[in-house]
Write a structure and sequence with these properties.
Elements (H helix, E strand, L loop, with lengths): L2 E5 L2 E3 L5 E8 L7 E7 L6 E7 L5 E3 L7 E6 L4 E6 L8 E8 L14 E2 L3 E5 L2
Parallel strand pairs: 2-11
Antiparallel strand pairs: 1-3, 3-8, 4-5, 4-9, 5-6, 7-8, 9-10, 9-11
Amino acid sequence: QVQLVESGGGLVQPGGSLRLSCAASGFSWKYYTIGWFRQAPGKEREGVSGIRTSDGSAYYADSVKGRFTISRENAKNTVYLQMNSLKPEDTAVYYCALGPPFSACTFDARACIYWGQGTQVTVSS
């Protein structure tokens, strides 16, 4: 079955960095889309970043542009989210999600088919 395995969450001080990983398995698509979404307590889920593994086309929410970088390692079916200059408002549960190639799963959760379990990111001094 399809699995999305997330890692890299944790506690970091403001201004620090974390790298999240999402390893996908159990499907036969050569290419696909991965989106990163986050949800803080009392707030709606929001799109953070996404990538098309076919050509590396990337999406970033305005709130993270210039601080976060998404990338992929196609041979390992793994997508990374490098998060720099972290702020307390980045604190949330972060989820990765899988969608078909060239889908809107890069920024729209409704286009995603499979979801990981989520990983907690806490930015605090």
